[in-house]
Structures are given as C-alpha cells and as structure tokens.
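Our preliminary data section would be incomplete without showing what the modeling component actually yields. Below, a chain of 462 amino acids is followed by its predicted structure, encoded as tokens that our downstream tools consume directly.
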Amino acid sequence: MRSIQFRRALATGAVLVLAAGLAACGGDDGDGGETNTAGGTSPGEGKAECEALTEFGDLSGKTVSVYTSIVAPEDQPHIDSYKLFEECTGAQVNYEGSKEFEAQLVVRARSGNPPDIAYIPQPGLLTSLVNDTGAVVEAPQSVADNVDEFFGEDWKAYGSVDGTFYAAPLGANVKSFVWYSPQMFNENGWEIPETWDDMMTLSEEIAGTGIKPWCVGIGSGEATGWPATDWLEDVLLRDGGAEVYDQWVDHEIPFDDPAVVEALDRVGSILKNPDMVNGGYGDVQSIVETTFQEGGLPILEGECALHRQASFYAANWGEAKPDVKIAEDGDVFAFYLPPTNDENGSPVLGGGEFAAAFSDRPEVQAFQTYLASDLWANEKAKATPDGGWVSANTGLDVANLVSPVDQLSAEILQDPEAVFRFDGSDLMPGAVGAGSFWREMVAWVGGKSSEDALADVESSWP
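Predicted structure:
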C-alpha cells in the first residue's frame, strides 16, 4: 500500500518526480564510492556471522537514524532485523516511521536535516531527491559489491540515477499474480494455466459453468483506477517486452502507441467482457464501484474463480476470513500471470524499497552494507513470523519465509529468467501516473475506447 500513498503524494504535488531525469532503467550503473572505516577492532571480530562488517572497525557508541513510511505494527520486524548489526558493530540503529514520509523526507533533505538512511519506496522519488536536493550520497563500494552479487542488473539500475549507483534494493512485492481457490480448481479438474491463451480457454470454460470467471475491483478513493493501470502494465510488459515497456514509461513512444492500444484491448477482453466479469458483484460497471480490497473476496464464496492482484493482497483474505488458509492446498493461493508469447521471457511487474543514504560516515556505510547483504535478508525473513515480506535478494533462503505466497514471490523474483520492471505509473510524472492514467482507466471501463482513453492520457503528458 505504500505505493498508493506515494501516488497520492504525487497527485497533491507533495513530491516532484521528474520523469525526464529518470535514468534508473538504463545506462551505466557505475561502481560504488569510497568505503570509509572507523578504525579499531570491531566487536564482531572472529564471529563468522559478522565477517562482512568487521572492515568498518569499532563503531561502539555510534548511531544510525533510519526514516521510513513503515509504521507500527509493521515496523517491529524491521527493528528486530537490526539486532545482529548492532551486536556485530556496536552501533545503534534509531528507527522512525512516519505516515507523512514521502512529503517530509523531501522537506528534511532540502532543509539540511535528512536522516542517515531513508527507505525509498520508488525509483522516481530517488531520482527527485538526487536531482532536486543534491543530498543523497553515492553508495560505497561495499554496497555495490553486495548488490552485484545478490541482485539482478534490473534492480541495481532502479537504485541508480544518471549512471551513479545510490541505493540498494530492500523488500519487494510481486504484482504479476492471479489469485484462485485450489479447492475449486480441484473439484472442477481445472489446471493452472501456463500461457495467456490457456488462461483465456480456462476462463471460457469457467464461464460455461455459469460462474463469472473473474472478479475485479478498481475502487480506491481518490486513487480509484490504479488496479486497472496494473493490468495494462502487466500485459504490455508481456506483449512488448521490457524494451517497449521502458520506452512507454519514459515517454520515448507515445502513451497511445499501437502496441499499448493492443495491450489494453487484450485487457478489455477480460475487464470489459460481461461474460468474464464481475463475479459476485454485478456487471462490468460494478468494477469501478468495487474497492480493490473487496475485489477478490467472492472467490471465498465460490462466486468467481480468478482475481489478478499483487502479493500484498494476501492481507485482505485474512481480514475477510480470519481462519483462511493461504497455501497451494488451502482456501486461496496464487499463480504467476502467464506470458502472452514466447519471446519476452518471464516478465514480473512489481515494486519495492531502496535504502538511500544522506551521510557517508563509517557507521552509515556499514549499515548500508548490512542491508544490501544476504545476511540482513535472512535476518529480516526470520524476524517476520507472520509473513508479508519478501526480497529479490538471491541470497535469501526461501525456507526462512513462513508464508507460502512469500515463498512463491521469492522464487519468481530469484528466477534467472525473470525480467523485473517497476510499476509504470509510479515512474511517470504525477500528472499522468497519479492523475490522467487513473481517470482514463475508469472512463475506459465505463465504455470509452482504448484509442480515445490512451490518447487523452497522451495529451496530458507534461
């Protein structure tokens, strides 16, 4: 949900994301800057689990401030994951979560009072901070080395601006999921589709039983429409591949390029087809009236069979049915949204956070290095006993994740064939990504043609 908060901040002008400066998806990522040390003997000297941090010396009595949008109770697993760092280095981490994070971070950076480390929820905000404030510090070599070892090139690129590497990836989420009922599938002999055509054939088979195969909700208050933008982004990434997707996000091709029109028409074969939607709620128009939180819940009552939504949707099942079992043999589970062709690998749409620093003090660089390591990824997984967190860090042991959905997400993110791309609307100028794109998707569901809806978004591009 932090991505929605960020989009709202964009929509109100709280954060200026400059799309023209968004070089995070390409170019030379560069190496890290100089690594600083404090000297002396590290408290972790001789301990195997501390080996990667001893080079920073004795950091006893030093403090590192961390500022994030993650507030109670979700903050505690993060705080707990820092214990090993504090034991190894002697430094203390002071955590501050704020619901006003996106707006206040820019204010603090501009006023000369930034935190040591900030968890940046989107590459666009990182670019804005680098270009507008000049306060972000280049990541040290030790962080760059960890990212080169444990993350794919796509992830390092998203933490870079104009060829300079600033921020290591932290947590991630996968949006390319379709939720379903394993029990319903077993009872009807349905199988998980491996291609888009298979999925459409399955949808038609389900419709033939009298059940509307898909249930959808794109309502989200001021942000109504964003779930439909995710549909388009996921399909365009599959149809056109990463190159076309990047060109579209960076406005190197028009928003209403024929490839985008074709992708939206493919989405319309589900969302605007009365035979396909809207299970449990009504006709096509009910998609707008249904909140995204409620969107998939009819699956629990057998009123629909499929719901495309991100990994973070897992929390909504538990709120609707406290004893719900989310597992491959449970009440609900998810499968990877299948590709539309064989040409573009295994596209994954998602989001994540990045750790950016505003100081190069040894204790800050040590903490950055820890956060970019496999060590922290596994400590964070073990500190999150209720699930709901995952990382694209390839050093993360999937067995340390307790949630089957988190485990599935990690396997998808760690797949060497996976082509990861950030949610496009989060990378576009606020007037588009948090404005006209949302509005035109609502109008499109209401009957507007793909050509007209996308052309109107194109005309709004600043």
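Confidence is low (pLDDT under 50) at residues 1-28. The two ends are 26 Å apart (CA to CA). Preliminary results of this kind motivate Aim 1 of the renewal.
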